[in-house]
Amino acid sequence: MDETVSLVLFSGTDDKLTAAATLAAGAAALGKPVKIFLQYWALAAFRADRIKADHGLAPEAGAAGAAAVRAALAAGQSHWSETLRAAKELGEVEIQACSASMDILKLQQSDLDSLVDGVEGVAAFYINAGEGQIIFI
Amino acid sequence: MGNLDIKVRVDASGLSCPLPILRATQAIRTVAAGELIEVVATDPGSVKDFAAWASSTGNALVESGSADGKYRFVLRHK
To answer: Which single residue of A46, A104, A122, B61 could bond B54 by disulfide (Cβ 3.0 to 4.6 Å)?
Structure first.
């Protein structure tokens, strides 16, 4: 059985990134290898100069949802980037940037936060995912 | 429960999922095989999470209980 959990992150809003970081960290805590592939707006959110910026929320959050999310962060909920950092420290978590998205957004790896381990294409992503689950967020 | 020899205590009160199991994973690595840690959490999801975490990682869930809105887990490093 292939235990690897692969997460494709597409959305770059803070709520979806928080949900993704929770899934990644949970899998890492269970001892499962985790592969994260960053595309489009998720990749843009990993820019070193704005990883902690306000990346907004999914449209369905609405005003009340936005207030609830802000309150959780103010109450000490871990920022998604810190959750991922903790997950990388305690488990086998690898974060790769999608090379096509890098090209579209005109990014170099040096533009990205050190959480990102490298840049790869979709074939490498599938090979590394093996027979394990792939989750798209 | 008073005579358990707990080596490390983790207060995960106020932390939401997945932080309690992350803190537990970090803490259990600091003790030797067979030694115990205690985690206190307020996240109601932690009850099922710690049971799943124990069965998946092979670390034993020695005690699991709740009182006054807090959940307490004693875990033995495998």
So the answer is: B61
Say what the ipTM of the complex is: 0.81
Assess A59–B contact: CB distance below 8 Å, yes or no: no
Could you count the other beta carbons within 10 Å of the beta carbon of residue B44? 12
The verdict on whether B17 is a catalytic residue reads: yes
Q: Taking a C-beta distance cutoff of 8 angstroms, is the pair B28, B51 a contact?
A: no
Domains of chain B: 6-73 (3.30.110.40)
Distance from CA of A5 to the nearest CA of B (A): 15
B40 Cβ contact partners less than 8 Å away, ≥ 6 residues apart? B9, B10, B11, B12, B13, B70, B71, B72, B73
Q: What is the pLDDT of residues B43-53, one digit of tens each?
A: 999 999 999 99
Torsion angle of C-alpha atoms B27, B32, B33, B35, degrees rounded to 10: -70
A126 CA to centre of own chain:
17
Check CB contact under 8 Å for B15 and A76. Answer: yes
Of A25, A31, A77, the CB nearest to B22: A25
How many angstroms separate the CA of residue A97 from the nearest CA in chain B? 24
